[in-house]
Amino acid sequence: MAVPSVAVQPRPSMLSRLAESRNTLGLGFMLPAAALLLVFLTYPLGLGVWLGFTDTRIGRPGIYIGVENYQYLWSDSVFWLSVFNTVLYTVSASILKFVLGLWLALILNEKLPFKSFFRAVVLLPWVVPTVLSAIAFWWIYDSQFSILSWALQQMGLIDHRINFLGDPTNARASVIAANVWRGIPFVAITLLAGLQTIPQSLYEAATLDGASRWQLFRHVTLPLLTPIIAITMTFSVLFTFTDFQLIYVLTRGGPVNATHLMATLSFQRGIAGGQLGEGAAIAVAMIPFLLAAILFSYFGLQRRRWQQGGGD
Amino acid sequence: MAAIREVERLDTDEGGMGYLQSLPRRVVTVYLPLLVFLIVLLFPFYWMTITAVKPNVEMTDYVNYNPFWVVHPTLEHIRYLLLETSYPGWLLNTVIISTAATFLSLAAAVLAAYAIERLRFSGARQVGLAVFLAYLVPPSILFIPLSVMVFNLGLYDTPFALILTYPTFLIPFCTWLLMGYFRSIPFELEECALIDGATRWQILTKIVLPLSVPGLISAGIFAFTLSWNEFIYALTFIQSSEKKTVPVGVLTELVRSDVYEWGALMAGALIGSLPVVVLYSFFVEHYVSSMTGAVKE
């Protein structure tokens, strides 16, 4: 008599089957991350685009004014100067970081005593908060008590103090140098990881075939390293392009806007100046450049890999 | 895990042809450049330390004292920093905010990474890609709309403004890193547990998480370091002096008009860097190997 109920019991209820289904469960597990990212990342991204079309100020909700902000920026020489500075900063710092980082990675890949110690120490500039190391650079670049000026004077290389941050050209070079200093470890350590995956037997085979050290580097190391170079440099370009902290500490965009990057200009107009709409428009204007930079460094380097893989 | 083992294995036979180089040649191509790199990369830290313990008299007198050394080291700057400024408060704020943001992000990232990597719900690949793209959105284009949001939500000038916004760059990174770790755990373990009647939640907490402790540690360290170093949100969303974080406090409160307290500034920079350096030096091997693992994805 009781048989039917026994037969029904092992069959899981609709609810428990639903709870065990991949999609429901996946949705539940994704919920916290998705909620945080949608609310605090996707929504502000859209809000930023919208703010760029309004005249919002701090403490006053704005109204839609179309592309007025962009028209104003188009005719604003400071904005174009900041675009130029950002491109100059990104291109020169990225190239220097790549060359020096690759060089350091090749050195660290040699047989060395205390190797893991060196590897750890080299990462320090990257671990320490940028603002705090930038403050150290600020003191190193001090107009009166710069240790660099003093050392160069003692060596007899210069006869008067260098005005590191007061002169437009010097200021640009100084902030780029500080950025390169901070970026080398990341590039070096990631490229080192890539170098360690290249089998030694390839070098041995190439050496037996009579390859020189340059040829080993050019035809074995570089082609095999290209995928990692592409990823590393994409990240490096991205972070350099959107840099804010270093400039904010060292020059605040000065002298006469010579080191203003788009991010610092956006902060100055949007937060310090209260023109949220205009600041947002500058930030939005970074997006196309950013996409172009990412696509260029990623696909540019990827294509070389095909070419080299295809028989050079 | 696989990445660590691979690196170790390759460590042993690298430089296999080093014997082909003579010693003088190695000095010029390896040791000398390495020395120059080390000096350049480490000099700012040396300069920070030496300035932090240098009396003001020596700091500005390059004629009678060699600036590269300190004759009468003093703790005056550090005492001033710790007792007469809000520095200890900033340290505490930074610790609280970084810890809270790290745990929040880790919890969300563990669930998300497990769902994407192992539950494989429909659309999991696309979600994984979206998470990666989220990592590429830089804070410098989000801070203005976020400041509007933070203000409207009544979070302005509270630690929650930072605890809730830091996960925007922490979750994508941690999720991506943990996905790599979860992938290295054999699927058979989970199948066994499923057959034994374990629920997905039990599998996650009793099998997957204990096996991915190294991954959790490195994701945690990364997240903590990134929150500790964050600047632009902390600068924009916090106004009261006593609620600031270390990087913002040191820069905005210790620099007063024309008088730069270089000693105190350097001491502040040094002490503010110590926690992340110590944390990282304990786990440096995790750090390096997981970074290489994350890049290989």
**How many angstroms separate the termini of chain A?**
82 Å
Low-confidence stretches of chain A: 1-9, 306-312
- Proportion of beta-strand residues of chain A: under 5%
Order of helices and strands of chain A: HHHHHHHHHHHHHHH
| Strands in their spatial order, largest beta sheet of chain B | 1-2
Topology:
The complex is a heterodimer of chains A (312) and B (297).
Chain A: H1 3-8, H2 14-20, H3 22-52, H4 68-74, H5 77-108, H6 115-122, H7 124-127, H8 130-140, H9 147-154, H10 168-195, H11 200-208, H12 213-241, H13 245-250, H14 262-272, H15 276-309
Helix pairs in contact in A: 3-15, 5-10, 5-12, 10-12, 12-15, 14-15
Chain B: H1 2-13, H2 23-52, H3 56-59, H4 76-84, H5 87-119, H6 124-135, H7 139-152, H8 159-165, H9 167-183, H10 187-195, H11 200-211, H12 213-229, H13 232-237, H14 246-253, E1 255-256, E2 259-260, H15 262-282, H16 284-296
Antiparallel strand pairs in B: 1-2
Question: Gist?
Answer:
Chain A has helices spanning 3-8, 14-20, 22-52, 68-74, 77-108, 115-122, 124-127, 130-140, 147-154, 168-195, 200-208, 213-241, 245-250, 262-272, 276-309. With 312 residues, chain A is mainly alpha-helical. The N and C termini of chain A lie far apart (82 Å).
Can you walk me through this structure?
The complex is a heterodimer of chains A (312) and B (297). Chain A is mainly alpha-helical and 312 residues long. Chain A has two domains: 13-52, no CATH class; 70-309, MetI-like (MetI-like fold, Orthogonal Bundle). Chain A has 15 helices and no strands. In chain A, helix 3 (22-52) packs across helix 15 and helix 14 packs antiparallel against helix 15 (276-309). The longest helix of chain A is centred in the C-terminal third of the chain and has 34 residues, at 276-309. Helix content of chain B is 75%, strand content 1%. Chain B has one domain: MetI-like (MetI-like fold), CATH 1.10.3720. Chain B has a two-stranded antiparallel sheet with strand order 1-2. By secondary structure, chain B is an all-alpha fold. The chains are: A mainly alpha (312), B mainly alpha (297). At the A-B interface, helix 3, helix 5, helix 6, helix 7 and helix 8 of A face helix 1, helix 2, helix 5, helix 6 and helix 7 of B.
